[in-house]
Design a protein that fits this description.
mainly alpha; two-stranded antiparallel ribbon; 4 strands
C-alpha cells in the first residue's frame, strides 16, 4: 500500500473517531431536549412547525403509534414525489431541449419509492431527466425528510432500551423535526459551502452550450448541485445530480471534496453509537459498538485496496505496480484524480453506510474486490444508514446475546433487559426479510425472459449485476454494479417493491422489539450477569455478524463474484 492511500485511510478513521464523542453527545442533547448551542435559532422555528402542523410535542407515542407515523409519513412523501416527477414538465425550470428522457409511470414510481426511503436507486440520467424543480423540491427535500425519519426511528429504539416499565418511545414528529432543524439542516449548510469552495456548482442557470475545438456542440449541465450533493451523503441517500454520480467532476471535483463527502456519509451513523451509550447510561457499550464497526470497516478497506492495487492478472504483460509514472493497479472504471485509494475509500464507505454515492464503476472491480461492497450491503451493520443501520447492528447484537445466554444456560439479557421469545421472533423476522427480498427477485430475474433481456452481460458477471441490484435495493443503498438496463418496467417495479419491503417491515419489527423491552423492568447486575461491554463480547458479536452473514449469503455469492474469481484463476493456467 502506498503512503498516500494509507495516510488517507488513517486520516478518515482519525477524524471519525475524534468526532464520535462530541457529535454523539450533541445528538443526545438534541433528542433528550437538553440545551444546545443552536437553541436560540431552532426553538422558535420548532414551535412554529408544531403550531402549523397541530403537533403536541409533550405527547408520547407507543411503538404502534410511532411506527404508524413513520410508515404513513414515508408513504405520503412517496405519493407527493410521484406527482412532482410525473408532472415536472408543467412545473418551473423544465428545459424540454435538455430534459429529454420521458418519465414513465413505472420509472416515476421507482424514483418516488427510492428517494422517500433514502435508497435513491437511479435508473435514469439526472441531467437529462430531472428538472431543477424536481431535483430541489422533490429529490433534495426527500433526502432531508427520509434521512431525518431514519434517524428518528434509531433514536426511538434507543429510548426503548433506556426506559424502564414504559409504554412509550417518544414522539415521531418531535424527533423528525429536531433531526431536521438541529442536525441535518446546519450540517448541510456548512457542507454545501465547503463543496462550493471546492468547485461544486450551486446555481439555477440554464445549461451552457459550448463549441469544442473540433466544432462540435457540447451541452454542459448546471444546477444547484452543492445543495443536493451534501444532503445525499449526510442523509445516507446517495442519489446523484448527474448520471456519473460521485465520479462527475461537478459533484466531486477534488480528492479533498471526496474525503469531505465520505466523512459526511459516515459521521452521523458512527456518532450514533456514542449517542446510544449516553442514552442508555453505558458509554462503554457505545464504544464497543463503534469499535466492532471499525474492525469490520477496516478489514473491507484493506481487502479492496489490496485486490484493486494488485490489478487483473488476466492482463498479461501489463505493468500494474505503482511507481512515479503511474498509479498502477486496476484503474478500469476509476477516476485518475482519486486513484485506487480514493476509490477504495468511497466503495467501502458507501456500500457499508447504505449510500450509493459511488465515484467509480463498481462493475469494473476485480471479482473479489467487487465482493466487498456486496458484503457491506448484505450485512448492513457497518455504520449503516442513518438510524436504520444502528437497528441492523443491534439485530446481530441481540442474536449474539441470545446465543451467549444459551451457551451459559442463562436467560439472555441486554442492558439489563431480558431478551425472551417475543423479541427473538421479531429479531429473526427482521433478519430473514433481507435475504428473502434479495434472493427471490434475483432468481426470478435471471430465469424470466424480461429479466434476462435487460442484462448486457451473461454468465456469472451478469448474475452478479442482477444480485447487486436487488441487494442495493433491499439495503436502501442505491448504488449499481452497472451493465444492467434497469429502466424497464420489470426492474423499476421489482426494485421498488424490494425497497418498500426492505425498508418498512424490518423497522416495524424492531419498533415492536423496542416497545417490548421498554415495558420491562431492568434486572439488577449480579455476578452471573453476562457483560456485553467487554472485549470478549465484542469479539463474539463480531463473530456472530460474520457467521450469520456467511450462512445467509455465501451460497448466492458463490454463483457470482466467487465463481468469477475461480473462473479467472482457471484461465491463468492456460
Amino acid at each position: 500500500m502506498n503512503l498516500y492511500s494509507l495516510l488517507q485511510y488513517l486520516l478518515f478513521l482519525a477524524i471519525i473517531t475524534a468526532l464520535v464523542k462530541p457529535l454523539g453527545g450533541y445528538m443526545e442533547r438534541v433528542f433528550s431536549g437538553k440545551r444546545t448551542m443552536l437553541d436560540r435559532l431552532c426553538l422558535p422555528v420548532e414551535r412554529l412547525v408544531y403550531r402549523a402542523a397541530g403537533v403536541d410535542p409533550a405527547r408520547q407515542m407507543t411503538f404502534v403509534e410511532y411506527a404508524a407515523c413513520f410508515v404513513l409519513f414515508g408513504l405520503s412523501s412517496t405519493l407527493a414525489l410521484y406527482a412532482i416527477v410525473r408532472f415536472e414538465k408543467f412545473l418551473p425550470w423544465f428545459y424540454s431541449a435538455y430534459h429529454t428522457t420521458p418519465v414513465s409511470p413505472d420509472l416515476a414510481m421507482n424514483v418516488a419509492v427510492s428517494f422517500s426511503t433514502t435508497t435513491t436507486w437511479q435508473a435514469y440520467s439526472g441531467e437529462t431527466t430531472m428538472s431543477y424543480f424536481s431535483q430541489m423540491v422533490g429529490l433534495c427535500s426527500q433526502n432531508f425528510l427520509a434521512g431525518a425519519a431514519g434517524l428518528a426511528v434509531g433514536v426511538a429504539f434507543i429510548r426503548g432500551l433506556a426506559r424502564e416499565v414504559s409504554s412509550t418511545l417518544g414522539n415521531f414528529w418531535v424527533d423528525l423535526t429536531r433531526a431536521l432543524l438541529w442536525i441535518l439542516l446546519p450540517a448541510a449548510l456548512l457542507g454545501a459551502l465547503l463543496l462550493a469552495w471546492q468547485g461544486v456548482p450551486m446555481n439555477f442557470h440554464p445549461y451552457a452550450v459550448a463549441t469544442t475545438v473540433e466544432g462540435v456542440k457540447q451541452v454542459i449541465p448546471q444546477g444547484p448541485v452543492a445543495a443536493l450533493e451534501i444532503v445525499k451523503n449526510l442523509g445516507t441517500n446517495g442519489g446523484g445530480f448527474f448520471n456519473a454520480n460521485g465520479a462527475h467532476p461537478y459533484e466531486n471535483p477534488t480528492p479533498l471534496s471526496n474525503l469531505l463527502e465520505m466523512l459526511a456519509v459516515a459521521l452521523l451513523p458512527a456518532a450514533l453509537t456514542n449517542t446510544f451509550g449516553r442514552m442508555v447510561g453505558q458509554p462503554r457499550q457505545g464504544w464497543l459498538f463503534y469499535w466492532v464497526m471499525v474492525l469490520l470497516f477496516a478489514g473491507g478497506l484493506l481487502l479492496v485496496h489490496h485486490l484493486e492495487q494488485r490489478g487483473n492478472p488476466l492482463l498479461r504483460g501489463v505493468d500494474f505496480p505503482r511507481n512515479s509514472a503511474q498509479s498502477g493497479g486496476n484503474m478500469e472504471g476509476k477516476e485518475v484524480r482519486f486513484g485506487i485509494g480514493g476509490t477504495t475509500l468511497t466503495a467501502v464507505v458507501t456500500s457499508n453506510a447504505a449510500t450509493g454515492s459511488t465515484n467509480a464503476m463498481d462493475d469494473s472491480f476485480t471479482p473479489l474486490g467487487g465482493l466487498v461492497p456486496f458484503v457491506g450491503m448484505m450485512l448492513q451493520c457497518v455504520y449503516g444508514g442513518k438510524g436504520v443501520g444502528f437497528l441492523n447492528a443491534l439485530v446481530y447484537g441481540i442474536i449474539a446475546v441470545f446465543v451467549a445466554g444459551l451457551m451459559v444456560g442463562r436467560t439472555p439479557e441486554f442492558l439489563g433487559k431480558k431478551i425472551e421469545k417475543p423479541e427473538i421472533i421479531l429479531v429473526s423476522l427482521t433478519l430473514l426479510i433481507h435475504p428473502l427480498v434479495i434472493l427471490a427477485p434475483t432468481a426470478w430475474s435471471v430465469a424470466a425472459p424480461y429479466g434476462v433481456a435487460a442484462m448486457n452481460n451473461v454468465g456469472t458477471h451478469g448474475y452478479s449485476e442482477v444480485l447487486y441490484a436487488f441487494a442495493s435495493a433491499a439495503a436502501n443503498n442505491g448504488s449499481a454494479f452497472a451493465g444492467l438496463n434497469a429502466n424497464t418496467p420489470w426492474y423499476n417495479l421489482a426494485t421498488a417493491l424490494v425497497i418498500l419491503i426492505g425498508r418498512y417491515p424490518p423497522i416495524i419489527f424492531m419498533m415492536a422489539v423496542a416497545g417490548s423491552v421498554a415495558a420491562k423492568p431492568t434486572t439488577p447486575v449480579t455476578v452471573g450477569t453476562l457483560r456485553t461491554d467487554t472485549g470478549l463480547f465484542g469479539a463474539f458479536w463480531f463473530g456472530v455478524i460474520l457467521v450469520v452473514g456467511a450462512l445467509t449469503f455465501v451460497p448466492a455469492l458463490v454463483l457470482g463474484p466467487i465463481a468469477e474469481y475461480f473462473a479467472m484463476k482457471s484461465q491463468l493456467l492456460f
